[in-house]
Amino acid sequence: MSEIINQNISQIIERISEIIENASEQLVERRVLFELVVLGIITKEHVLFIGPPGTGKSAAVKSAARQFSGTYFEYLIGRFTEPGELFGALDLAALKDGQVRPVVQNMLPEANIAFLDEIFLGSTAILNSLLGVLNERVYKRGTFECKVPLWSCVAASNALPEDPMLQAFADRFLLTSFVEPVSEENLNALLSAGWARATNESVTTSATAPTKLSAQDLQHLTDAVCQVDLTDTLESYAHIVRKLRVRGVAMSDRRLVKGQKLIAAAALLGGRSKASVADLWPVIYMIQDPDLQNEVKDLLAAELGKGENILLSESVKQSSSGPQARAVDLTKYGQDLLSQKPALTSDPGFEIWQVKLESLLTRIDAGFSAEDMPQTLSVLRTGLIASVSSDDTPAPKATGTD
Predict the structure, then answer these.
(1) Cα dist. 257→132, 196, 260, 309, 385 in Å?
(2) Can you tell me the distance from the alpha carbon of 27 to that of 58, in angstroms, rounded to the nearest whole number?
(3) Angle at 198 between CA 41 and CA 76, to 5 degrees
(4) Pfam families under this entry (predicted)?
(5) What radius of gyration do the chain's Cα atoms show?
C-alpha cells in the first residue's frame, strides 16, 4: 500500500467525513461519541461510554448506527434480564426433540452493531455469553453454536464497576469515553437542537443525507487499516506505554497490542497509509479511569499535542484537553463573560449574567484546588468575585479559597 491511499478508500473516507459533519450539527458536545463509535466499527473493536443518564450516549450510538447498512440491535439490561432477551428464546419445537437451540432471528447473535445500555447489570450467564460474542464473535448455548457477524458492540453505564470480575469484562472494550452533561456555554445550542429534533422527527432528510456505508465499504476500510505502516510509531508508542507504567497506569498486553489498530485507523482516516506521532492520540481512550485519563493528558502533553485528524477532530481535541487545557478554556470563557457584564444591576440581563458567573466559579472550584489552580485562572477567579462584590448585589458563592 502506497503512502497515498487509493481513490476508492479516499471516497469512502470522504463519505464518512460528510456523515460526521451532518451528525455533529444535531449532537451538541457529543461529536466525540459519534467519532469513537465510527472508529470502533472500522477497527472491529468495542466501545464503552460511562456517564449519568440522559447525557446523549444512546442518541450518539443510534445516530452512528443509522449511517451503516448493517443490522442493529439494542437493549437496556436490568438486574432481572434473562439471557433469552438478548440471545433468543429456546426453540420449543427443537426442545421436544431433545435439542437445545435458541431462536436467534433479530437478536444479538445476528447483529452487526449492538448497543447494550447498563451493561454491568447483566447476570453472570449474560456476561459469560457476551465474552464469547465480543472476543471470538461466536455465540454458544449448550451444543448450539453460531458465528456472530458483529462489527462493534457499544456499551453504556452510569459508572465503572468496582468488582474485579466486572473490571476484567470491561477490559474487552478497547475505547472508553467518560460523558459529562453539556456545558453551560452550549446550553442554548442543546435546547435548540433538541427542540428541532422533537418537532421534525417525522421529516425525512434522505435527499440530502450522505449514502449509508455498506458492508463492502466497511470491509475495504478494515482491510486498509491492516495495511497501514506503523514503523514510525512503534518507538513513540512504546515510550508512551513506559511513561504510563511509571505513573501506575496498567493496561493488559492484549489491550496494548490491539491499540495499534486504533493508531492505524487514525492514520487512515487522516488520509495517510503511514502512521506518525500525529496518530497516537487514541491511547487516551484506552485508559478506563476518568481521573487517570485527565492526568495522562497532561503527562503526555508533548506527545499528544502533535495529534492531528480533521475527520476525527473532536476526538483528537479531547484526547489532549487535560486540566491545563481546561484551565485555558475556562479562563477564556471567564474573560468573555467579564466583557459581557451589563453596565447596570437593574438591567434585565444582569441576573442571567450573574448565574453564568456563579456556575463558572463552581466549575473552577470543582476542577482545581487552591494549590493546583494555574495562576491565570486564579487571577481570573479573583476578578470574577470582585466584579460582583463591587455591585449592590450579594457576591457569588465560591467553595475554594483565594
Answers:
(1) 19, 43, 6, 22, 50
(2) 11
(3) 45
(4) AAA_lid_8, bpMoxR
(5) 24
pLDDT at position 323 is 63
- The three cell numbers of residue 158 are 452510569
Stated pTM of the model: 0.80
Query: Residue 104, Cα to own-chain centre: how many angstroms?
Result: 29
Task: Give the end-to-end CA distance of the chain in Å, rounded to a whole number.
Answer: 58
Q: Which residue has the cell 477490559?
A: 171
Q: Are 55 and 179 in contact (CB under 8 A)?
A: yes
Q: Tell me, what amino acid is at 64?
A: A
Tell me the three cell numbers of residue 386: 470582585
**How far is Cα 172 from Cα 174, in angstroms, rounded to an integer?**
6
d(C-alpha 182, C-alpha 188), whole Å: 10
Q: Where are the domains of the chain?
A: 28-199, 324-389
Per-residue confidence (pLDDT) for residue 402, from 0 to 100: 46
For residue 25, the model assigns a pLDDT of 74
Residue matched to cell numbers 448565574: 355
Asked whether the CA dihedral 354, 356, 358, 361 is positive or negative, the reply is: negative
Residues in the chain: 402
Task: DSSP for 157-171, please give it.
Answer: ESS---SHHHHHHHT
Fold of 28-199: Rossmann fold (3.40.50)
CA–CA distances in Å: residue 265 to residues 78, 271, 314? 34, 10, 16
Instruction: State how beta strands 175-178 and 152-157 pair.
Output: unpaired
C-alpha–C-alpha distance, residues 208 and 112, integer Å: 25
* Structure confidence at residue 3 (pLDDT): 54
Residue 49 phi, psi (nearest 5): -110, 130
- Low-confidence stretches of the chain (pLDDT < 70) are 1-5, 96, 98, 201-210, 321-326, 388-402
